[in-house]
User: Fold this.
Amino acid sequence: MSVGLEVKNEKLETKKEQVISKRFYIESYGCQMNFADSEVVASIVSNHGYVSTTDLNEADLILLNTCSIREKAELTVRKRLESFNKLKKHNKKLKVGVLGCMAERLKDKFLDEEKIVDLVVGPDAYKDLPNLIEEINDGRSAVNVILSKDETYGDVSPIRLSSNGVTAFVSITRGCDNMCTFCVVPFTRGRERSRDPKSILKEIQQLVDSNYKEVTLLGQNVDSYLWYGGGLKKDFGKISDLRKKSSIDFSKLLKLVAESFPKLRIRFSTSNPQDMSLNVIKTMSSYKNICNYIHLPVQSGSDDVLKAMNRQHTRKEYLTLIKEIKTIIPECGISHDMITGFPNESEEDHKLTLDLMDEIKYDFGYMFKYSERPGTYAGKKFDDNIAEEVKKIRLQEIIDLQRKHSSYRTNQYIGKFVEVLIEKESKKSNLFWSGRNEQNTVVVFPKEFYNVGEFVNVEVNSCTSATLIGQATGYSIK
Ligand code: 5AD
Ligand code: SF4
Assistant:
């Protein structure tokens, strides 16, 4: 009996040793949520005996966390997959896994389309990775793309990958219920659900204990965060009044985080104009440690286009919201996402977008040509009828206008003092530090005796359209 046990243990040990010597390499594409998810994946895979590597050549398992938001993002991933063919020829045991939105969108079709892929895992199925990896190591391919009603990975402690040790992302919601007609996200990331505030606070506490100085609360639509004990956002209406009363919305969560961690800088992304409440803006203004910065995508300045996009607000409502933000927080930084060349977008619609930008003068923005996504409402019902040339010209016009506005905004800082959290060395010079002010604008200044992770006051003396350049004048007391 005891001999049998020993043999069994020996076998286990050998298996463990084999597993322990394996290395995984992970690469992320797309939004911040994907980068945060990769840290969850790294944690799950590490607990299964794999060790992380940043060297592709020594990897036994390559994972690509993919994005489907635009066709270009998918093409980039396909090209990257192609480049692994050579590696696989050299290392017959190498396995390649595709995670994230492309995995969810293409499901097992991926295995046929890209022969190099062994593993396909959607955004809600990462806890199944240990089983799926066993499958592929036994020579089979493996797929799990089941979307969940409640998976938030709240109980997984992410492993911070390529972190600066100072700033980190913390997911607070998953999925999206908005169904903007152009967007593939509701299909690839499923229904909206919120994470238990206790597990959010626990993760932030771990970060604070490890000396992190800034967190960004992440969700596709943070303003619709709602914790009432778990479950889908859409089911909130069915619960009792008592439970509704004790529920926690985004402004309450922000308050909770700000009060629990008074020395921590807090950011959040992304806000949705239709869900952003006055309470959130007031909470931001009441707590010094919540950064005065809002990423508030609008997508278009034309009511006709907003309607066709199924955005639940008008141009006027959006402008009213901006006015409210600027009244309560005059120095608030605001950025946008804009899509140009949406089906049927006329010259007049395009002019309305330029006009909206002129009125707001955003600090910065992310601008995209419309890319038709299979399966979306717009993909099915509207003709992608704006010529590529026209899309290109319109995109350039909004980029040029944004550059002008960014320049206008950065120039306003000249001669002023901004508080900067030092994050890393400046890309342009190893004699300079780089960080951001609370409005999320990059600030660079001579290193002197300061260090990464410190809050300093910087006097701005020049700028480009994207960067403030200055001189540190001392520590900022937190
Ligand atoms: N085409 C172009 N841009 C898109 N976005 C989302 N879907 C599309 C699409 N089909 C942009 C939106 C969104 C950002 C994350 O990506 O501006 O806010
Ligand atoms: Fe996509 Fe709209 Fe949801 Fe943003 S809010 S993820 S654009 S559906």
In short: Residues 69-70, 182-183, 297, 299, 337, 339, 368, 370-371, 373 surround 5'-deoxyadenosine (ligand 1) (CB under 6 Å). The chain has a mean pLDDT of 93. The domain at 3-144 is CATH 3.40.50.12160 (Rossmann fold). The chain has three domains: 3-144, 167-409, 417-475.
